[in-house]
Amino acid sequence: MDTKFTNDKELIQSLKKSEPKAYAYLVETYRKKLLRYVLNLTKNRELSEDIVQNVYMKFWNQRHKLKDDFIVNSYLYRCVYYEFIDQYRKRKSALALDKIYFDALATTVQEEEESHSERLLYLVKREIENLPPKCKQTFLLSKEDGFSNKQIAAHLDVSLKCVEAHITKAFSYLRQKVG
User: Domains in the chain and their CATH numbers?
Assistant: First the structure.
């Protein structure tokens, strides 16, 4: 592929003009990264490929609505995540998920011989759910997915200081709530 776009604005403008080279560049540049990301979520290659393909189709169909100041990388990752959630919901009914969640919660609460570390882990996970969305996402990428702060900053398209601030805020909140 010979065509290179120097910035997102130029790419978006070309996409709005329905230029095939812009779409080809978009797919070529982000496909592998998006597949890797969604594969970590789904653990299923075919489903991951379907999700990425759906995102590209929706992106192309909505290209005229794109704002020139969009950050393509962040937007695509967000779209892939939301498509993953949609696919997950289609496969599992929300009611069944709620039942599983409440059954697990009841079992956890009722277990008298649960160790201190297990209870602490449960409390921490519950409080993580109460974190602000960006803070929670950053914290989970760091602690659950094992991303470095640099990787998180690149993935979310934010500064390293912003990542550090979110992680510090999360730890502070968890210490306050869990002790």
Answer: 8-91 (1.10.1740.10), 114-178 (1.10.10.10)
